[in-house]
Specification:
Elements (H helix, E strand, L loop, with lengths): L1 E7 L8 H14 L3 E8 L5 H10 L4 E4 L7 H11 L6 H4 L4 H12 L4 E5 L15 E5 L3 H9 L5 H24 L2 E4 L2 H7 L8 E3 L20 E5 L5 H21 L4 E5 L5 H4 L6 E5 L4 H7 L2 E4 L9 H8 L3 E4 L16 E2 L3 H13 L1 H15 L4 H35 L6
Parallel strand pairs: 1-2, 1-4, 2-3, 4-5, 5-6, 6-7, 8-9, 8-11, 9-10, 11-12, 12-13
Helix pairs in contact: 1-15, 6-7, 9-13, 12-14
Length: 420
């Protein structure tokens, strides 16, 4: 099978949950299929990135748009310039004539199927791709914007989020109709999107985990350490750690004075850096997340907004960690309350759960072992195989539809009676 995979932004180095998911599925697909990865990114040509990408995914096609991110002020002016556009800014800013020309050339090579990775890449896809096409939805983007818009904001920021939510909702619904099939990452996301299109047009491929890298190591001595892992320039993560430090952490420290909270993740926002204290650490980018996970007694996921599935939860569970999460934080995952994870949505209950697990080693070990057993079924080879099955099905359906249209045209041309 010849697969064309299109994604905005650099995929290397792999850090965010979405990039982890895409990269691991791509690598597995490339072992059994002919994959062309079209990667386009802002800024000047990056020779190191393109060399590294060729090493990981030979035959990749790279496009530097030349567009600069600019300062916050410059981004503000760019936003105002695009304000009349019906397309949300989070998508419209990725539009590029150079990318569109390159994509059209790749499509002219007649791959069996094209994958649009994330909604922001859809802006550069032609309205009709002429080959079977699949939209890979890591999140229901409009749901993230809806939650952000209703999450206690005020003033201009609230107005902007509400406006962008409405734009995103309309654009997302239209995008789903443009593609032949949609792949979601959870049943929850499929249910949300089924309100906009036929459920049979949506398949679910759950998230995966690198079970070789993320595995238990009983030789590492656990500390009275609570950690959160995630990209710290992503708004839902910023909100999560602010909420945890303000509403939950004081109660934990009151019960376990020696406890420490470590926020692990790249590009910490200034609001995250401001959380540093004698009991709270902000690491920034780290060489190995797994090393931090193995040191921890408890991993927390106090998300209040967000979408898709949470790879970081599965990574923590794969290392046999006790995880305490909000319902939103674990939304879409195959987890079971009280068996392999603890779900708490109220600050008091969340704090009590963390304290109990820190004090009760047997309960902590029991929960962690059950978690590791669960995610052992979600290795990337299994997940990628399911993804490939869906692509092959879409390809067959597309070929049958094309054959039907060709046969019908030939009959009409020859004067044979038309059938309906």
């Amino acid at each position: 099978m010849k697969i064309l995979w299109v994604k905005a932004n650099k995929i290397l180095p792999v850090h965010s949950g979405g990039d982890l998911r895409s990269f691991n599925i791509l690598r597995q697909l490339a072992r059994h299929h002919q994959v062309t990865f079209l990667s386009y990114y802002d800024g000047p040509w990056d020779a190191d990135y393109e060399t590294n990408l060729q090493r990981e995914l030979p035959g990749a096609v790279c496009v530097s748009t030349g567009q600069q991110q600019g300062s916050v002020v410059a981004r503000g002016f760019d936003y105002l310039r695009r304000l009349p556009n019906a397309v949300p800014y989070a998508v419209s800013r990725f539009a590029s004539g150079t990318v569109q020309a390159t994509l059209n050339h790749c499509l002219s090579e007649r791959p069996d199927v094209a994958v649009c990775d994330f909604l922001d890449a859809a802006i550069n896809f032609p309205q009709h791709a002429q080959i079977p096409s699949v939209l890979f939805q890591h999140n229901v983007e409009s749901e993230i914007w809806r939650r952000n818009a209703s999450n206690g904001l005020s003033g201009v920021k609230k107005l902007v989020y509400r406006m962008e939510f409405r734009k995103m909702l309309g654009y997302e619904q239209q995008a789903l109709a443009r593609f032949d099939h949609v792949i979601a990452v959870s049943d929850h996301d499929k249910k949300l999107m089924s309100a906009w299109t036929e459920p049979q047009r949506i398949s679910v491929v759950p998230t995966g985990v690198d079970t070789e890298q993320f595995c238990p190591d009983n030789s590492v001595r656990q500390k009275p350490l609570v950690i959160f892992v995630g990209a710290m320039d992503w708004e839902p993560n910023v909100d999560a750690v602010k909420y945890f430090c303000a509403e939950i952490w004081p109660s934990v420290v009151a019960e376990v004075p020696q406890a420490r909270f470590r926020i692990v993740g790249r590009n910490p926002d200034r609001r995250v850096k401001a959380l540093k204290s004698s009991s709270i650490e902000v690491t920034g980018r780290v060489p190995s997340v797994v090393d931090h996970l193995r040191e921890a007694a408890v991993v927390v996921v106090p998300l209040r907004v967000g979408g898709g599935t949470r790879i970081k939860i599965y990574e923590a569970m794969a290392t046999a960690k006790a995880v305490v999460s909000t319902t939103v934080g674990a939304e879409g995952l195959d987890v079971h309350q009280g068996q392999d994870i603890v779900l708490s949505d109220k600050p008091k209950e969340f704090a009590e759960s963390v304290v109990r697990l820190m004090k009760d080693e047997q309960a902590r070990v029991r929960l962690g072992n059950a978690a590791a057993a669960l995610v052992s079924y979600y290795g990337w080879p299994v997940i990628a195989a399911k993804f490939a099955e869906i692509l092959e099905s879409v390809t067959r359906q597309g070929s049958n539809l094309l054959l039907h249209h060709q046969t019908r045209s030939e009959r009409n041309f020859s004067g044979s009676p038309q059938t309906s």
